[in-house]
Every structure is written in C-alpha cells, then in structure tokens.
Amino acid sequence: MEKYRVGVIGATGMVGQRFVSLMEKHPWFQLVAVAASCRSAGKTYEEVVSKRWAIGGSIPEEAKGLTVLDAEADAEKLASMVDFVFCAVDMKKEEIRALEERYAKLECPVVSNNSAHRWTEDVPMVVPEINADHIKIIDAQRRRLGTKRGFIAVKSNCSLQSYVPALHPLKKYGIERALVCTYQAISGAGKTFERWPEMVDNCIPYIGGEEEKSEQEPLKLWGRIEGDQIVKADGPAITAQCFRVACQDGHMAACFVKFADGKAPSMEQIKSDWAAFQGRAQELKLPSAPRQFLHYFEEADRPQTRLDRMLENGMAVSIGRLRPDTQYDYKFVCLSHNTLRGAAGGAVLLAELLCAENYITRQ
Ligand SMILES: NC(=O)c1ccc[n+]([C@@H]2O[C@H](COP(=O)([O-])OP(=O)(O)OC[C@H]3O[C@@H](n4cnc5c(N)ncnc54)[C@H](OP(=O)(O)O)[C@@H]3O)[C@@H](O)[C@H]2O)c1
C-alpha cells in the first residue's frame, strides 16, 4: 500500500516527539517533513532534539536527517510536500487558530492536538470510539473555508480520555451527573522532572483551564450535528477538580456517577458493558485501535500509573475499583496515557479514521 505522506508541526516538542516516534513503524503513514518555530528552523531534527528527547527510546532514523522547517514562513512548502499534517504547538490560541486555518486553506488537512479550535462549531472534536460520526461536519467546514481537501479536525483534552470512555457505554441507563478528580502527569505540561524539579515529591492542585475543559468538552463529544454545526449535549453534568502529580506519564481519574432515580445498573452489568464496548475504531480495525478499549482490573490496587499506562501500546483505558458510593450510585478509578491515547496516539487514531472514511486522500 502506498503510504500517506505526513508532516508534523511542533515536531520538536513533547507531543511532537511522540508523533515522530509513532510514524516510525506506522503501516499507513510516512513521515516526510517536520516543522517548529523559527528558533529550530534550518537545523536537522537530530540537532534540535538530541538534548531534549523526552519520551524514551531513540530518535527514529528516518527523522534524524530531516531539516526542520519554519511552520509559519515555510507553510506553502510544507503543505505541498504532504497529504496532511499533525499539529501540536505551544503558541497563543489565536496564533494557533490562524496557523491551522492557513494550512487548511492551503488544502492541507490538519489533525490537531491543540485546544484552539475545539469549540469552533464546524470543527469535529473526536474520540474515534465515541463520536466518529462527527467527522461528517467536515463537509460544512470545507464550504465555509472554500476548500476541497483542507479542513481541521481535533482531538479532545487529555484529562478526560479515561473517564469519558468509561462513562460512555453507561449513558444508555441515564446518567444524571458525574464528579471527577484527575491526577495528571507532568508530561501533560510538556515537562520532565529535570525541567520541572519543583514537581519532585509534589502535588499542585491547579492546572490552568483544565477543569473547564474536563467539564465542558465531554458535552461536545456527546453532542450532535445540526445543520452546519455541532451542538453540544445538555448533559450529563460533570464537575471536576484537576491536580498535577509527580508522575512522568499517565493521567488517573477518580470518578463518581449518579444515575436517574431507579435507573442504576448492577455492578455486573456495568463491567459487562465495559467488556463488550467497541467503537468505530475497532469496527474498522484501525491500526492504532486497541483491541479491547476498556480493561477492567479486579485487583483492589489497580490500575496503577506505572504498571498500566502502556496497556495496548498506551491506547487502552484501564478501569478498576468499581464499588457503591454513599452519595452517588458508584465510584471507580480509571487511567489513560496522556501523551499516547490523550495526545499523539489519539490524533494518529483520528487520522486513521479520516483516511479510512476518505476525508484524507493522497494528493
Ligand atoms: N503534553 C501533553 O500531554 C499534551 C496533551 C494534550 C494536548 N497538548 C497540547 O499540545 C500542544 C503541544 O504541547 P507540548 O507539550 O508538546 O509542548 P512543548 O513540548 O512545549 O512543544 C511546543 C512545540 O511548539 C513549537 N512552537 C512554539 N512556538 C512556535 C511557533 N511560533 N511556530 C511554530 N512552532 C512553535 C515548539 O518549537 P520549538 O522547539 O522550535 O520552540 C515545539 O515544537 C499544546 O497546545 C498543548 O496544550 C499537550
């Protein structure tokens, strides 16, 4: 099979490095270009990242010799070299919005890890197991942008990629509300312990903007297409507190769920729903899709961040400790890998979905 030619914008950063490493053995995608800020442009990828390679393993051979392009100044060149780009940059929101729209208008599809376009009404925000059908809004987005190929699709925030998948198969019973506390790894801030020594032996009870994303983004995922926009769902209402904890990778969440009166399923039913759950990613057998999306652990002390974050290459969600609660119906814990399922891996899976459904085609 002829591979899709892929560019990574923000390739030198924490998420960008993940994208580059996920391209290494990808059966459909071939990395052909990397871009970052003007600070890195003109140097080889190896020169720029050798001292800041932060994700374990080594820099892929195919990436080492690529010359880093300037994502802004070289946009036309980059867009002409690739079938689509991944984007994960640390810039002001309005600058990211403009950059991503520029690539889309250059007829280059953008699969984005950034939050800048998550609330643009005709930009699909997709977890392929949950709301794959939202990609149909791309037709409306292309009409607005005046493009034939170009569009922007985004993934949702990393904080919610454990508890939303766990709640999703239970929505059919009528969830009234949920409460979550998240315990988020430092790579979620693009950091390592060397670069953030204050995080050693520490817990910080604040991550700017994260609680609002954790409460609101699930409602867009559970929303519906109406005309030229995605309208968010009315509920279930979620309240969240988000903490930064001293883990390198892996976001844990403690989740409490209350069903409408008399609607609570049994614990056995919930476990069986989790075990049986399959989404569009599994139906299409996408290369990065976990075979079993939701794994339930019976052991009382699982899931654990270090032991379980890499389950199914970091693309599965681990759940445990389901039990009755005194104020909600049930409580449980869940875990997902924030830079794999929650960031680059989730975006790669979304790109696979967009290729399989013919929204991304070869130029
Ligand atoms: N880390 C996570 O787990 C995670 C999860 C979900 C979402 N995100 C989001 O993903 C994005 C990237 O996060 P990160 O953790 O990878 O950040 P990071 O490690 O700080 O990397 C930032 C990247 O952006 C590039 N950049 C900065 N200014 C630029 C400019 N003016 N033009 C082009 N490129 C520019 C940097 O290039 P230089 O090296 O040249 O400066 C670098 O490649 C952010 O929007 C973040 O919110 C991160």
Please describe the topology of this protein:
Layout: E1 4-9, H1 14-23, E2 29-36, H2 45-49, H3 61-64, E3 68-70, H4 75-81, E4 84-87, H5 93-105, E5 110-112, H6 128-131, H7 138-145, E6 152-154, H8 163-167, E7 175-184, E8 203-204, H9 210-221, E9 224-226, E10 229-231, E11 237-245, E12 251-259, H10 267-276, H11 280-283, E13 294-297, H12 305-308, H13 311-314, E14 317-324, E15 330-336, H14 340-356
Parallel strand pairs: 1-2, 1-4, 2-3, 4-5, 5-6, 7-11, 13-14
Antiparallel strand pairs: 7-12, 8-11, 9-10, 12-15, 14-15
Provide a quick synopsis of the model.
The protein has 363 residues and is α/β, with parallel strands linked by helices. It has helices at residues 14-23, 45-49, 61-64, 75-81, 93-105, 128-131, 138-145, 163-167, 210-221, 267-276, 280-283, 305-308, 311-314, 340-356, and strands at 4-9, 29-36, 68-70, 84-87, 110-112, 152-154, 175-184, 203-204, 224-226, 229-231, 237-245, 251-259, 294-297, 317-324, 330-336.
